[in-house]
Prior knowledge:
The protein is an alpha+beta fold. It folds into two domains: 69-277, D-Maltodextrin-Binding Protein, domain 2, CATH 3.40.190.10; 322-560, Dipeptide-binding Protein, Domain 3 (Dipeptide-binding Protein, domain 3, Roll), CATH 3.10.105.10. Helix content is 22%, strand content 19%. It has helices at 88-98, 146-157, 175-179, 208-211, 219-222, 234-237, 285-291, 301-304, 348-357, 360-367, 399-408, 441-454, 469-477, 516-524, 533-550, and strands at residues 67-72, 103-105, 111-113, 116-121, 127-132, 189-193, 196-200, 246-252, 256-261, 274-279, 296-299, 313-319, 322-328, 332-333, 338-339, 373-374, 429-433, 458-461, 485-491, 553-558, 560-566, 569-570, 587-588. The strands form seven sheets. Strands 16-20-13-19-17-18 form a six-stranded mixed sheet. The chain has a four-stranded mixed sheet with strand order 1-10-9-8, with helices on one face. A four-stranded antiparallel sheet has the order 4-5-7-6, covered by helices on one side. Helix 12 links the parallel strand 17 and strand 18 (458-461). The protein is globular and about 75 Å long.
Amino acid sequence: MKKSLLLSVLLTTSIFAAACGGNDGNNDADPADNGNNGNNADVNNDGNDDGNDGNDTAQEDAPQGGTVTYGFTQPFAGLFDWAHYEGQDDSLALKIFNGDALVKTGDDLRPEPHLAHDWEWSDDNLTVTFHLEEGVMWHNGEELTAEDFEYAWEVIAHEDYTGPRVSNVNIIEGFEEYNSGDADSLSGVEIEDDYTISVTFNEAMPNAVDQLWTYPMPKAHLEHIDVADLEDADEIRREPVGLGAYQVSNIISGEQVEFEAFEDYWRGAPNLDGVVYKIIDGAQAAELLAQGEVDIIDLPPSQAVTLEGDDRVYLDDIEGLSYSYIGFKLGHWDGEQNVMDNEKFHSKELRHAFAHAIDRQGIIDSFSEGYGQVINAPESVISWAYPDESDLTQYEYDTERAKELLAEAGYEDQTGDGFVETPDGDEFTVNFMAMSGSDISEPRAQYIVQNLQDAGINASLQDGQLFEFNLFYDLVEEDDADIDLFMGAWGLAADPDPTGLWKSDDFWNFPRWVNEESDELIERGLSEEAFDDDYRREVYQEWHQLVNDELPLIPLNSPVDVYGIASDVGGVTVDIRDAITDPHLWYREQ
């Protein structure tokens, strides 16, 4: 799998664009915003809609003109195509100029109409027919048609495709034949006319629309490029074409993207003249916001509190559809599947000891100003599938209990240096890998290292440092031999299907956990019986209990995201993933 920059990327239904490259440096991937592929729920916080009355079209009485700057704290890779991007760094820019998809996520985290104004299912639940909005224009003057969706699915299904979204199209009938070169098209895709397209799936699934890749690709702009060359093509990296409210006018690699208003946007011309997506120093995010260098940014709570009462900005917060974690490296990716061959963390009791050693509430209190909730399952607390915590082991912070479990697993201090040795008497050291990104990144990482040392575990920061976002994910993806523990986060799609992050053959299963019972439960969650929500919820409860016991990672918290917004900027809706819902409604007081 070719990678140019991971994520926040989110891959199957369960990930949003998989690792989140958040401002607190805590994030993992935005890998494959499966499911709704990055379409965020239209969540409004009380009193903060600033002119957004819920209508799709821009308000006629909103101030016109001006620009707004959206800030981020990690350099972007510049893969400005939904089918190829891997991180939140690129997805934020994509949402500004190309954020529309077949469906969007509703307040109940279920798919709602968007580019498809409606759809219907066949009686056997195998075929869905989408009816597209007419008059939706690409920035190159071409009209969006059903062929743009067919083209996107065929690119991802092609044997030469280099991106991470295969799990969103291999569910379509005819994928295997097309991928192997035995067919010229996907047999499960039928174009009835320019605005009507049907998709037949290999099997009936309760989350088929969530799982299906729902972003079109501008066929007229890209079809002359070989699929293998798309990722590096100028048409994606330097001259991308979208169908959003703003079109790309200038790209300064890794630093800034400038957008200008697209007057023919299908939901109404935007209020602003343009938008700037700007990369800034995360340690200065709050200061730069107050000074007017940026107008909208996701702030670490530690910085947000410094702006309370500042009339130059206002703060908005929302529970995020994501979670942070500390992962164990249990094995490696062999190119096709995960192999769990790292004996260092083979002992489940050892992993349990690590969980008790870490003060998870202390991390929230000390570095997130109390924003967030300790969790014991890899799921956001706002998901309808979040498990009943009473059925889960809580792994309370308890250094003495951690020491007891270490001893039970055979890890005791045999040399008197205060750190345990392995059951064979060998030195036991642990490299902890964390990401840079903000002023709290290093003290938080050192706090975790100290927690482990207090329990008798000889832990230290890998190479004595934190790692920049791109390098961090390069090493995690490649299963660098020095990694023992790593700290990350996942942004999630609306549907709770764990496929893409947790099956034995999922590349983004970064702990490299292989468990037959887990695979079976994940498959049951997509079975015919799972069309019953109660049945599906019970399956995911059982799956979470399994993960909670086996503990391939230590869930840390389900976060509360805090955004700072300039006081003279309105129309901004903060939602479960970012603050780029409906950017055509943004305005600036003149």
